[in-house]
Amino acid sequence: MLTVYSDRHTLHHAHAEPFGGTVVEPFECPQRAEYVLARLREVGLGPVNTPADHGLEPILRVHDAGYVQFLQTVWADWTAAGFSGQVTPSVWPGRTMPFRRPSSHIEARVGYHALCGETGIVEGTWEAAYWSAQAALTALDAVLAGDRAAFALCRPPGHHAPKDQYGGYCFLNNAAIAAQAALDRGAQRVAVLDVDFHHGNGTQEIFYDRSDVLFLSLHGTPDQAYPYFMGWEDETGSGDGAGFTANYPLPAGTPYSVWKQALEQALDRIRDYAPDLLVISLGLDTYEQDPISFFKLTAADYLDYGGLLAGLTLPTLFVMEGGYAVEDLGINTVNVLQGFET
Ligand code: SP5
Ligand code: ZN
């Protein structure tokens, strides 16, 4: 299986994350991608290519132009305001102070585009996010050209980013950008299956009122897990998209036996939908040792469900999302891909 990877991900390296009233090293760190790359080289999964540049156009098919421009200029505006730390929101248009009109102040613009506060922006964040999206688009090229599957080793991840916000360690929604690009290049229907521990709120929001993308997510229940405000079972799509979103929230301590039952339900939905392409938002934070999550999957379980995904016999694009047990992240990620191939 082809992997697409850009070393420009290292340009995004936030140095602090608020956590339970303290500040910690960010869970989403550059070593994550390095562990995955090392493991897939170790097992000889296949070639590793650098992304081709598809430009801004496929990104702008999903994200608002004003948001993209914000990402491109936020660091310069932040430092011009005299700030020296990583870009951090401190004010939001909250529930009782709704957004009425834009303020040009950089603090207002950061708060307007920030979904939440744990995700830092540094000088190279835009460039890293741009090439992460290009990795997804380049892996898609391989699948559209006839490869059974390809793996976009994206970093930063993407599934929390809706059309015009960043957060949950995500800036550009790589999976959504690839799904939209596939539609723009002739696919009639695309299924996006999100197996990251966290609900894929960004992807859901982007496609919520559309029937050409079936979005399905298995995740920690919003009662107990980030992003808390989305991912309930009764969120099933609206308008033309009614019935084309499916959520499988699961409680703390969920073992693979239970997670797998939800996966099989999701796979049945995908079979009925008969998409031309399957995009997997591949997060490995379902792992029993993940430091910020609470499912109980083991390394062997990743091999197993990789095989179940292959059972759909669909052209499949894997897009890297979360997973924070860094030292085991390579093994777990590559286990899914190897399970798929065998
Ligand atoms: C891509 C991805 O996996 N993003 C995850 C973003 C999670 N951000 C919020 C983390 C909140 C952690 N709270 C942990 C409580 C642990 N007991
Ligand atoms: Zn996650």
The helix content, as a percent range, equals 25-40%
What ligand molecules are bound, each kind once?
A: N-[3-({4-[(3-aminopropyl)amino]butyl}amino)propyl]acetamide, zinc ion
How many discrete structural domains?
Answer: 1
User: How much β-strand is present in the residues?
Assistant: 5-15%
- State the total count of DSSP E strands: 10
In terms of topology, how is this protein built?
Blueprint: E1 2-4, E2 17-19, E3 22-24, H1 31-43, E4 48-49, H2 57-60, H3 65-80, H4 106-113, H5 125-144, E5 149-152, H6 174-184, E6 190-194, H7 201-207, E7 213-220, E8 245-250, H8 256-273, E9 277-282, H9 299-310, E10 316-320, H10 326-341
Helix pairs in contact: 1-10, 3-4, 5-6, 8-9, 9-10
Bound molecules: N-[3-({4-[(3-aminopropyl)amino]butyl}amino)propyl]acetamide (SP5) and zinc ion (ZN).
Report on this structure.
With 342 residues, the chain is an alpha/beta fold. 37% of the residues lie in helices and 13% in strands. It has helices at residues 31-43, 57-60, 65-80, 106-113, 125-144, 174-184, 201-207, 256-273, 299-310, 326-341; strands at residues 2-4, 17-19, 22-24, 48-49, 149-152, 190-194, 213-220, 245-250, 277-282, 316-320. An eight-stranded parallel β-sheet has the order 4-1-5-10-9-6-7-8, with helices on both faces. Strands 2-3 form a two-stranded antiparallel sheet. The longest helix has 20 residues, at 125-144. N-[3-({4-[(3-aminopropyl)amino]butyl}amino)propyl]acetamide is lined by residues 118, 157, 160, 168-170, 196, 198, 226, 283, 285, 292, 321-322. Keywords: Hydrolase, Metal-binding, Zinc.
